[in-house]
Design a protein that fits this description.
mainly alpha, globular, two-stranded antiparallel ribbon, about 280 residues
């Protein structure tokens, strides 16, 4: 339960462990969309098969995750679904219409954050008004920016961060990239972003070489998840977008997230090995 009394139901307790079902839902949606698109590839240019049915799959998943009070993961799942639809053959005209609709909604929400319930509206307000509760909702964001600025070009040295001591709250989680910037500086942060870029590039290359469409779409879905989640996290810690509470893949603490990411990378490697064997 957060400070506003809102109930968060993002984890399922299993004995001494907890399970976050939304991390499993991402991979499940990737498999469902890959299977559907591969079977209906020639019909994806039509509205019914290319937009309506995939939107139903994505919508059900997004609604269930949103009911957990997990808006950031809802947006992530939505973006993964859009990426797979685009690669699956959905006409670009539908995307133009969708982007215009999303832009209008975003303008309305940013201009009137009260339309969102509870903490979600407060985070929008804290993003647009830098003086809004500086010791409350902006505490973590402000100290994240201090950490990034303190790192300079070369950083203060691995393990020498000062902001991780009670300034950046829970620095091992969503805001770990700010601590990386402080300790490793601009050089280290650029290197990490470059590694994520190489991972995405290699994933796209593997997808292009797949002989069957299902495997190709699975790889696209997985690397899109990593890429979108990385972009969202970096945008949050640099205060480019409102604080959404989204983890940095392979870096942020979290058992279910890390386990699923490693499993998904294993799937990509398995598909890659199959492609290389055939070639």
């Amino acid at each position: 339960v957060n400070r506003n009394g809102e109930d968060f139901k993002r984890w399922i307790p299993i004995g001494p462990f907890t399970l976050q079902p939304s991390d499993i839902a991402k991979f499940a949606l990737i498999l469902v969309l890959a299977g559907y698109i591969s079977k209906n590839y020639r019909k994806m240019k039509y509205f019914k098969e290319g937009v309506l049915f995939p939107a139903l799959f994505i919508g059900v998943c997004c609604v269930l995750i949103y009911l957990e009070n997990h808006l950031s993961c809802t947006l992530l799942v939505f973006m993964i679904g859009l990426a797979m639809m685009f690669c699956g053959g959905t006409r670009w005209q539908y995307y133009v219409a969708g982007i215009c609709f999303v832009a209008v909604v975003a303008i309305i929400v940013i201009s009137n954050p009260d339309v969102l319930p509870g903490y979600q509206g407060d985070r929008i307000r804290a993003w647009t008004d830098k003086a809004f509760q500086p010791l409350g909702l902006r505490w973590q964001t402000n100290n994240s920016l201090y950490a990034i600025g303190s790192g300079g070009f070369w950083g203060v040295g691995l393990g020498n961060s000062k902001q991780k001591y009670l300034y950046v709250s829970e620095p091992q989680n969503d805001f770990i990239f700010s601590i990386v910037c402080e300790e490793l500086g601009f050089i280290g942060a650029t290197l990490i972003i470059g590694l994520f870029g190489i991972l995405f590039w290699r994933g796209v290359k593997i997808a292009q070489r797949c002989e069957d469409r299902f495997s190709s779409l699975v790889v696209i879905g997985i690397v899109s998840q990593v890429a979108i989640q990385t972009i969202f996290n970096i945008l949050v810690v640099t205060d480019t977008i409102p604080n959404t509470g989204i983890a940095l893949p392979f870096f942020s603490y979290g058992g279910t997230s890390l386990l699923m990411l490693c499993f998904e990378m294993g799937v990509v490697l398995s598909i890659s090995r199959k492609v290389n064997t055939k070639n």
